[in-house]
Amino acid sequence: MNLHIKGATAYVFWLSKELLVFTGEMDYYFSATMIVYEGNLGDPIPNIWMIWFPGFFGIDPIGEGTISHITASGTGTFTAYAEELGLSSEGETLNVKIDQIGLAKPEDHPQIDPLVGLMMWPVEHIFFY
Fold it and tell me: pTM (2 decimals)?
């Protein structure tokens, strides 16, 4: 599955301090591999969230998301928090590129998001230029 989103609002947070350091607009390119267990050839494809998070919908698992990848690029500005952290000056306009690779982790993995039961983005790179 491939999805392209143009002109989406973007926020980048400094996770260890939970501070908003960048706001802007991005173009996202999302690709995912999914395995659907139930259904027949030609049936509509289930909602991606129903495959990855069936517990949210109160349904039995119907498949799994095995790997996903997001790349995004855009422009925006640094916030006052970015200046406090020494990243750059508040209001500086710049380009940003994000690269995220998501691999579903087993339920007993030590870095599990307790809300969804798996770790979505174990690899993430953000480049400001």
Answer: 0.61
